[in-house]
Amino acid sequence: MELVIDRVSKQYKNRIAVDRVSVNLKEGVYGLLGENGAGKTTLMRMICGILRPTGGTIALDGTDAGEEAYRAALGYLPQDFGYYPEFSAEDFLFYIGALKGLSRTSARKKTKELLELVALWDVRRKKIKTFSGGMKQRLGIAQALINDPRLLILDEPTAGLDPKERVRFRNLIESLGKENIVLLSTHIVSDIEHIADKILIMKSGRMIFEGTWDRDKGDLESFYLSLSEEREPSVDRGMVKL
Questions:
Q1: Most buried pick, 8, 35, 70, 230, via CB within 10 A?
Q2: Any residues with CB less than 8 A from the CB of 222 and at least 6 apart, and which?
């Protein structure tokens, strides 16, 4: 399985949000870092088919991001995921399952499995509007997994989670990355350092670093900050790889 992002760009009038990004992702967990405005969310929205690139292509095993088969293999947790406040957690997941094309039996089974996985089964009949921020975020993680996606895109998934919940989430992502492609964007560098098989760093719309990381190389956060504080990368310099 391979996600191929080939020279992808996104331009809004006079502003280039993503500038000719190319990267190939295979099974594993990829941690995407970058300051606000670096282009991370725009790139992820293009990967999810929500935005159309100005240039370049995105394909999963040769299937373009605009095709139905691509969307069927995709799970997405946006930074602010939409939910229906009057729905219960159980009804909401069942509804998302129906939208994804699951049968009633499969949707019910998957809803129970995921609510247990994110520790919301005991409050499954409570309305979402009564949930805390952390509970809503866990429900968001569950809805992203409802169709057993092969490609999972997570934008700030640990926002609102307490330390114990973050550890549980990291363990879940590690297990999902063994057979799927998981792209995780967060400002919490330690989360990425713990679970990512590969690190991606964006700045000013460009991918400026791609590589693995281990403790022998030092502190990832310090390295990330040093790259972020550098002057604008030149076109000729290209991308740092380790």
A1: 8
A2: none
The residues pairing with 8 across neighbouring beta strands, listed in sequence order, are 21
CA distance 153 to 32: 10
Distance CA 160, CA 7 (A): 34
Residue located via tokens 């719309």: 205
Half-sphere exposure of 77 (CA within 13 A, CB side): 25
First to last CA, the chain: 22
Instruction: Provide the pLDDT for residue 237.
Output: 40
CA distance linking residue 132 with residue 59, whole number of Å: 37
Which ranges of 118-242 would DSSP assign to H, the alpha helix?
133-144, 163-176, 189-195, 220-229
Q: How do residues 87-126 score in pLDDT, each as one tens digit?
A: 999 999 999 998 888 999 999 999 999 999 888 999 999 9
Local structure of 210: helix, strand or coil: strand
| CA torsion angle 87 90 95 98 (round to 10) | -170
- From edge to edge, which strands make up the β-sheet containing 63-64? 15-26, 2-12, 55-60, 63-64
DSSP string, 50-112: SS--SEEEEEETTEETTSHHHHHTEEEE-TT----TTSBHHHHHHHHHHHTT--HHHHHHHHH
- The pTM is what? 0.86
